[in-house]
Design brief:
By secondary structure, this protein is of the alpha/beta class. About 45% of the residues lie in helices and about 20% in strands.
Length: about 170
């Protein structure tokens, strides 16, 4: 990755985003995996366990569903994979953060990404390419995900769009 500091990997569900993030981080040490998922049901518990097995034991795993910027500020060194932004946004919405509060958190996250001394690989979903969500909360989530992705892409050194397991370099 050379001098790359921020890499954004976006794409649809099951497009290979997390696998690509792990590949980009391979060979770096220490490697930190910042997980935003919460194991609220058995399916998510199974997904988290599969991701842990895929990573292996040579990763430092941090679990933080809400305070991403603060976690990045505390761990400024070591290659870090943040997986994923859209789950983080869901976590904020589920905790009744309003649009303005979430946009403030996104701005704080972007500042923390720029301030890190080491490479940060950020995984997110591209949710705005499908149908317009039927309800207000679905549209709010779609809009916030689009805004967050744009803000992170603006400061990213590399942006990769994953389709069917194939990477397309956007930036």
């Amino acid at each position: 990755m050379g001098n790359t500091k921020v890499v954004l990997i976006t794409g649809g569900a099951r497009s290979g985003k997390s696998r690509m993030a792990l590949e980009l981080a391979s060979g770096h040490s220490p490697r930190i995996f910042l997980a935003t998922a919460e194991a609220l049901d058995q399916e998510m518990k199974d997904r988290i366990r599969k991701h842990q097995l895929d990573r292996g034991d040579d990763w430092i795993t941090l679990e933080e569903p809400v305070f991403l910027a603060q976690t990045l500020e505390r761990r400024s060194s070591g290659t870090m994979v943040v997986d994923c932004i859209t789950l983080w946004l869901s976590n904020l919405l589920m905790r009744s953060y309003n649009r303005q509060q979430i946009e403030t958190e996104v701005a704080r996250l972007v500042e923390a990404l720029q301030a890190r001394a080491s490479t940060t690989i950020v995984v997110t979903n591209e949710v705005g390419m499908g149908i317009v969500p039927e309800n207000d909360s679905g549209r709010l989530f779609r809009d916030l995900a689009g805004i967050a992705n744009q803000r992170i892409a603006e400061v990213a050194d590399r942006v990769i769009f994953m389709v069917s397991g194939l990477p397309f370099q956007l930036k």
